Amino acid sequence: MARRLDTDRLVIASHNPGKVREIGALIQPFAVAVVSAGALGLREPEETGATFVDNALLKARASATGSGLPALADDSGLVVPALGGEPGIHSARWGGPEKDFALAMAKVEAALAGHADRRAHFTCALALAWPDGHAEVFEGHVFGHLVWPPRGSRGFGYDPIFVADGDTMTFGEIDPERKHAISHRAAAFRQLLAACLQPHAGGGAGAR
Question: Annotated catalytic, 159?
Fold first, then answer.
């Protein structure tokens, strides 16, 4: 049985404002206030894992140890079968040292030149770690295809070139609430929340 989260404060093990914002919105219905690793001055560990799960665990455990609080880490990325699964766990690195996703999206489009197969999916691994080293891991996916040029200014990362199956708008165009309902992160969150959290009857605690 998964360990329940019995604290009212949780560290989001990320320095990415977009991820912190999305995770804060997803956890808002629960009696847990969130604070980012960046706001606490925690350093980002080197992501040396071979999988999304490996890297999520590295980040969650580093923040839990550094803060003395339970920590939640997300490792996610874009997987393109025609590119052998790339950019995958290297999704952020395709944007260079500045993590420029306009550059990263252009690199993906250039690499797809000559490929008829534009299928892609996002994967998200969520790791919830405690200061004693215990951790729970959950994984979610959303499948779709890539478009060019990028469309929409909502979301972050590769969202402006990704259209989920059954939809016509990119993740950069759709309403954030719609994305929260169907995304890879939402799929992983549903598993985490069912296993480790319970809704707060009196309403949610906001992110800070």
Answer: no
